[in-house]
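in:
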């Protein structure tokens, strides 16, 4: 019997609400189902690795584990991990030991920051190099989370910032070199890894993410999840530096001034309230808006409610400067929403000609034209056939092939 190890720590952190968490849930659950469907339960067992400091946050609550699947759980680095600042810096400099990883024949790692074991063959999933490519946008946010004034002052130093960027890049490359196989979620990400981290192309395979199947066992719609009362523009995602939500808020403000009686709906874990928004530009744009009462902050929403928000929106607006894949764009297309997004990176690779493309400079005019002309949503047979290619089951089948090769 062969054993597949899966690191579930992404489901015990804020990543559980983001793309990494969704990939972890979908790939893991579909992999378990696939093993059962192919009648390989006698051939495979699973080891789940969880965080020692999050024992009360059981990541398996997100998974639908068939009774026929054999599995064990291991606590990772119980004696090593501390929550001090020095330990967090240290993890970027030194290799991390993953306890009991040698008990797995192949180890599946969904997040590079947790490291990869060197005592077993690892398949590492890579999403993007955005923190590295947008360092000047990400590093200030990273610093702002520090509470110690002296630490903030020291880390705001340009020399330290440059040093830390080199350390981060070195850590990222070392983890990729230690992995046996790298799965990138797009050709865009694969090309970035080759160009910026100098990893050989033959070590990387691009496998697109999926859409459609809802394997989240906690996705039941809550009673307080009710659709807005006015027509609305919709965004769901993070508030990190490359997402120009502040420009979207400004565009919304001017649309209201032009007489469009609409609302702006912002969903995602960082949009629970104005205080949970990390980017000052976004926070300030909302607080100073003359129509902030019509800017709805919904926070994390269930899959069922998110589907309704997509379907009933005027359009899904995705003002991102860079994406390794752009899963929200694919979700929007799958759920019959019109999509207005920036023309860059993997957004163009995934969205093809099914998206209304815009830019920072033309966003206001393009949204205004879209609303005024009442353009029909691009729901046609050609699009439906295209979206059908993106299925988590198909994605997971390709993952299993890479695992079995090792």
């Amino acid at each position: 019997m062969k054993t597949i190890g899966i690191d579930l720590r992404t489901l015990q952190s804020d990543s559980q609400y983001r793309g990494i968490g969704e990939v972890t849930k979908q790939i893991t659950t579909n992999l378990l189902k696939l093993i059962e469907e192919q009648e390989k339960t006698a051939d495979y067992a699973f080891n789940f690795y969880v965080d020692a400091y999050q024992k009360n946050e059981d990541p398996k609550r997100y998974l639908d584990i068939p009774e026929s699947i054999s599995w064990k759980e291991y606590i990772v680095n119980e004696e090593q991990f501390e929550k001090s600042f020095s330990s967090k810096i240290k993890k970027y400099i030194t290799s991390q030991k993953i306890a009991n990883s040698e008990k797995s024949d192949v180890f599946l790692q969904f997040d590079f920051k947790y490291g990869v074991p060197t005592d077993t063959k690892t398949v590492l999933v890579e999403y993007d190099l955005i923190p590295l490519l947008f360092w000047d946008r990400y590093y200030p946010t990273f610093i702002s989370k520090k509470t110690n004034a002296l630490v903030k002052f020291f880390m705001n130093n340009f020399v330290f910032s440059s040093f830390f960027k080199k350390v981060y890049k070195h850590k990222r490359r070392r983890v990729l070199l230690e992995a046996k196989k790298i799965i990138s979620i797009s050709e865009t990400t694969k090309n970035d890894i080759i160009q910026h981290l100098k990893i050989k192309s033959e070590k990387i395979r691009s496998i697109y993410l999926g859409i459609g199947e809802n394997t989240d066992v906690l996705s039941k719609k809550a009673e307080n999840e009710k659709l807005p009362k006015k027509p609305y523009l919709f965004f769901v995602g993070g508030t990190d530096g490359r997402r120009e939500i502040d420009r979207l808020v400004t565009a919304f403000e001017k649309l209201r001034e032009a007489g469009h009686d609409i609302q702006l709906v912002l969903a995602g874990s960082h949009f629970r309230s104005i205080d949970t928004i990390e980017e000052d530009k976004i926070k300030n744009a909302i607080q100073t808006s003359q129509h902030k009462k019509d800017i709805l902050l919904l926070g994390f929403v269930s899959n069922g409610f998110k589907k309704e928000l997509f379907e009933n929106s005027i359009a899904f607006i995705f003002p991102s400067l860079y994406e390794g894949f752009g899963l929200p764009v694919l979700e929007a297309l799958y759920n019959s929403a019109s999509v207005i997004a920036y023309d860059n990176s993997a957004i163009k690779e995934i969205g093809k000609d099914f998206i209304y493309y815009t830019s920072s400079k033309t966003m206001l005019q393009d949204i205004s034209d879209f609303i005024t002309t009442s353009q029909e949503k691009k729901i046609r047979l050609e699009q439906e056939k295209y979206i059908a290619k993106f299925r988590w089951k198909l994605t997971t089948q390709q993952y299993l092939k890479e695992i079995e090769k090792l």
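note: The chain has a mean pLDDT of 87.
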